[in-house]
Amino acid sequence: MTRKTIRDIRSEELIDAAILAVHERGYGVVTMSEIAARAGTSAASINYYFGSKEQLMESTMRRLLDILKQALLLRFENTSNAHERLMAICDANFDDALFTVEQTSVWIQFWSHAPYSTSLSRLHRINRSRVRSHFRAELKQLLPPETRETVRRALQAYMDGVWLEAAQTEAEQLAPADARRAVRDVAALLLAR
C-alpha cells in the first residue's frame, strides 16, 4: 500500500471542501476563500496545491469519475455474461460512494459548466464516450442492431434524469439501493421490448 503524502492528504481535504462548498453555494458563485475556509486553510493553499479554482474543480471531477470507475471495476469482477455486465454498469452509476446528495449536485453543476471550460468539457466527453462504449459493448450481445441504440439512449437518459432529480432533492440523503433497483427495472423493461 502506498503511503499518502501531506500533499495528497491536503489535496483530498480541499476536494472534500470543494464538494461541500459547490453543493451549498453553487459552482458559479463559490469562491476559493469559501472552499479554503471549509478546509480550515487559506485560498493561497488552493493556488499552491492546484494552481487555480478551475484546476481544483477539475481535480474534484476527476475524483468523482474515479469513484465511478472503481465501482464499475469492482462490480465487473463478479460478472460472467453481458446481462450481468450491463447491470453492473447501471449499478455502478448509483454506487453508495458516488450517489450522494452533495456529489450529485456537484456532478450536475460541473457538467452544466463543461461547455464553458476546456478541461471540464474534455472530462465530460471522455465520460460520455466511456459510458456509451460500455453500454454498446453489452447491448451488442443482448439486442438486435435495430434496437440497441434506442435502448442505450433510453438507459442513459433515465440515469441522467435520476441524477438530475437527485441533485435537486431537498432530502438529506439519497437511497442508492432504491436507485439501483429502479434502473434494473427500467433496463429489464427496455430489454424485453
First-residue to last-residue Cα separation: 47 Å
- How many individual domains? 1
- The first-level CATH class name: Mainly Alpha
The CATH topology name reads Tetracycline Repressor, domain 2
Number of strands: 0
Question: What amount of the residues lies in strands?
Answer: under 5%
Mean pLDDT: 94
Rg estimate, integer Å: 18 Å
Per CATH, the architecture is Orthogonal Bundle
Query: What about the largest sheet?
Result: none
Element-level helix/strand string? HHHHHHHHH
Net shape: elongated
Structural class: mainly alpha
- Segments where pLDDT lies below 50 for 5+ residues? none
- Helical fraction: over 70%
Q: Could you name the CATH homologous superfamily?
A: Tetracycline Repressor, domain 2
How many individual helices?
9
GO molecular function: DNA-binding transcription factor activity; transcription cis-regulatory region binding
Protein name: HTH-type transcriptional regulator BetI
Keywords: DNA-binding, Repressor, Transcription, Transcription regulation
DNA-binding region: 31-50
Question: Briefly, what is this?
Answer:
The protein is mostly helical.
